[in-house]
Amino acid sequence: MKTFGVCFIACACYLSRVSGQALAAQKYAPTLQPCPGGTALVREAGSNAYTQTLGDEEAGYIAARRSLVLPNAWASYSRNVQQNTPVALPAYVDTILSGLLGKEALPNLGIASSGGGLRAALFGAGVLSALDGRNQSSVQAGLGGLLQAAQYLSGLSGGSWLVSSLSQADFPTLPDLIFGTQQADADGFGGWITPENLLQPGANSNETAEFLELFVEEVHGKWAAGFPVSVADVWGRSLARHFVNGTTADDFADATLAHGAGLTLSGVANVSTFRAYAQPFPIVIADSLVNRPNGTVVIIEPDEIVPLVNPIYEFNAYESGSFDPMLGAFTPTKFLGSPNSSVCALGFDQLSFIQGASSNLFNSMNTSAAALASSAIGPIIGLIEETMPQTGLRLDAADIPNPFFGLAQGTFVDTNSKILSLVDGGEDGQTTPLQPLLVRARGLDTIIAIDAPADTSDNFADGSSLIATQTRVQLLKPAYAFPPVPSTQTEYLAQNLTKRPTFFGCNSAPDAGDALVVYIANGGAPLGEPPLTNNPTAKLSYTADEAQAVLNQVFDVATQGIPVSAAGGETKDPEWPACLACAVVDRARRRLGVQRDGVCVSCFERYCWS
Ligand SMILES: *[C@@H]1O[C@H](CO)[C@@H](O)[C@H](O)[C@H]1NC(C)=O
Ligand SMILES: *[C@@H]1O[C@H](CO)[C@@H](O)[C@H](O)[C@H]1NC(C)=O
Ligand SMILES: *[C@@H]1O[C@H](CO)[C@@H](O)[C@H](O)[C@H]1NC(C)=O
Ligand SMILES: *[C@@H]1O[C@H](CO)[C@@H](O)[C@H](O)[C@H]1NC(C)=O
Ligand SMILES: *[C@@H]1O[C@H](CO)[C@@H](O)[C@H](O)[C@H]1NC(C)=O
Ligand SMILES: *[C@@H]1O[C@H](CO)[C@@H](O)[C@H](O)[C@H]1NC(C)=O
Ligand SMILES: *[C@@H]1O[C@H](CO)[C@@H](O)[C@H](O)[C@H]1NC(C)=O
Ligand SMILES: *[C@@H]1O[C@H](CO)[C@@H](O)[C@H](O)[C@H]1NC(C)=O
C-alpha cells in the first residue's frame, strides 16, 4: 500500500519532468495516416481447415526458403548426424535429406518452444543451441543443423521472448543471444541481461518504482494518440530492455534511450537473415479473453482460466490473426491497431507489446480489490488509472482494436467487440505453442515440441500441455490433426515420458494428416547431475553463471536420449541422434512408400509411445 502511494506522488512529478522528452515515449506511439491505396485490412483465410490458405508473403517466404536454403541445410544436417553416430542409418535417410529426390521430398519441420517464464526461455534456448549447426558441440553430438533446417519456429510467453528476440537480433547463436556480444552497437542487441529482474528491475523497491514510472511514461504517447493502453504495454517496456535491440547492461537504466521502442514485428522482415530466408519463420501466439462490451473499466477476473474454445491469435512479421475455424482471418501486422480501412495505424505492432501480450499472465493473478495493492501489478494498474483514464477496457490484458469486428458472426465470440483482449498464450493450459504448427496449410511433417512449464510441485513438466492440445483438437474437429497422446498426467510420469524424448504419432495412418511429434520436456535432471532447470516461473532474474549452467544442463537433456546401461552405469544413448533423424524423415519416408528399416526400426520401438 505504501509503495502505491509513494508511486503516485513521485509519478506526477516525474511525468511533468520528462513528458515530451523521452525518445522511447515518442517512438512507442503509433501514428495514423491514410491507408495506402488498395489496402485490405482483413484477409479471410477460410474456416474450412482443408481449404485454408497462407498469406502470400508467408507462402513466398516458405517457398523461397525451401528452394534456396533448406537443400543445403538438410544436406549439412545429414552429414553431421551420419558422421557422429556409431550406427549406420538406413539409406533412405540420406537419400531424402541429401536432396537426391529433389526439394519436394525434403521433410517439413517445425519447432515449438513453450512458456514458463525465464526458465522456459532458457530451456528452449538450450534445446535450440543443441540443434544449432553453428555449434561444434552440437554437431559432434549429432543433432547440430536441425535448427537451420526447420521451416517454422513458434513461441509463447517465455518462448515468445526466445523466438522473437532471436529473430529480431538477426539469428545469432544462442549464447550470443543470451549473453550479448562485445561488438553490439547502441542499436544492436545487447543480450537478455538476465541478472536484471524482468518484473522488478532495480536494486531496491524505490528503483523499481522509478523504473515502473518510466515504463508508464514510455507508453503515454500511445494513449494520447487514442489507442488503448494496459499493463501489457507497460510490462512490454520492461521486456524490451531484455528481448529487443537497443539496450546493453551498461545503459539499462538510461532514461534517454529508446530501448527498442519503434522496433516492430513487421520490421523483423527487414533483418538480413530474414531477407535471406535464413531463419525458421517465427510465430508467436497469445490467447484471447471473451470481451463483453461494458462501459466500466474492468480490471479483474481473479484466477481466470481461458477456455480451450477461445480463439488463439498468432503474430508473424506479415500477418496477425487466427486460423481457428471460428474466425479464420488475418490483418497485416504492420497495420495492427488501425481504426478502419481508410485510416491506418503504423507502429502499433511494437515488438515489446507483442512480447507483453504473449506473456500477459496478469489476468490470472488475484487482483480482487482487497489483493490488488499488494499484487505485482497493483502499482502499474494504479499508475495507468491515474495518468491514462480509459473506459470499457481490460487493464490486465493486452488490448487491440478488433480488426475482425463484425466478422464470422455466429462463430466468432468477439465479433461485436471493439477490442480484442489478449493474454498469455499458455493460459488455456497449452504451454507449448503447437496450434500454429497444426495448421493444415503449413503441412508440417515433424514437430519438435519443447515443453518447460511448472506443472509439478518441483517445477517440472507432466504432460498437461499435450493433454490440453489433444482436448482442443477434439473440440475443434476437424480443423486440426494431432497424434494420440496419453490423456492423464499420471501416465506421462509413470512412463517417464517427460524425462526422455518421446515420439508421438509413429503409427498414424497417412489419412490422419497428423505430424510426428518429438516431445522434449523439462522433466528431470540428466544423468548424474543435480537439477538446475526447475526454477519457479516467478524467478525472473538469473546471474550469467546460472544461465550458463542451465544451458549446459539442457545440452545434456537434449543429447541424452533414453539412457542405456553400460559398464560404468547408465550413459547417454549413442543411437539417439540417429533415432531423431529417423523421426525427422519418417513422414517423408512414408510419402515415398519406403519401409522403415535398419536402426530406425529399433529406434521407433524405444522412442515411440504406442
Ligand atoms: C555450444 O552450445 C553449448 C550448450 O548450449 C554452449 O554452452 C556453448 O557456449 C556453445 N558454443 C558456442 C561456441 O556457441
Ligand atoms: C538488431 O541488432 C542486430 C545486431 O546486433 C542487427 O543485425 C539487427 O538487424 C537488428 N534488428 C533490428 C530489428 O533492428
Ligand atoms: C526509498 O525512498 C524513501 C522515500 O524517499 C526513503 O525514505 C527510503 O530510505 C528509500 N529506500 C531505499 C532503500 O533507498
Ligand atoms: C525496411 O527497410 C526499408 C529501408 O531499409 C524501409 O524503407 C522500410 O520502412 C523498412 N520496413 C519496415 C517494415 O521496417
Ligand atoms: C459491466 O461491468 C460491471 C462491473 O464488472 C458489472 O457489474 C455489470 O453488470 C456489467 N454490465 C454488463 C452490461 O455486462
Ligand atoms: C476512421 O477512423 C478515423 C480515426 O479514428 C476517423 O476519424 C474516421 O471518421 C473513420 N472513418 C470511417 C469511415 O469510419
Ligand atoms: C484474493 O485475495 C483476497 C485478499 O487477500 C482474498 O480474500 C481472496 O480469498 C483471494 N482470492 C482468491 C481466489 O485467492
Ligand atoms: C522410470 O525411471 C525410473 C528411474 O529413472 C526407473 O526406475 C523406472 O523403471 C522407469 N520407468 C519406466 C516405465 O521406464
Automatic annotation (TrEMBL):
SMART domains in the cross-refs: PLAc
Coiled coil: none
Single Gene Ontology BP annotation: glycerophospholipid catabolic process
Record's protein name: Lysophospholipase
EC assignment: 3.1.1.5
Residues making up the signal peptide according to the UniProt record: 1-20
One Pfam family this sequence matches: PLA2_B
Organism: Trametes pubescens (White-rot fungus)
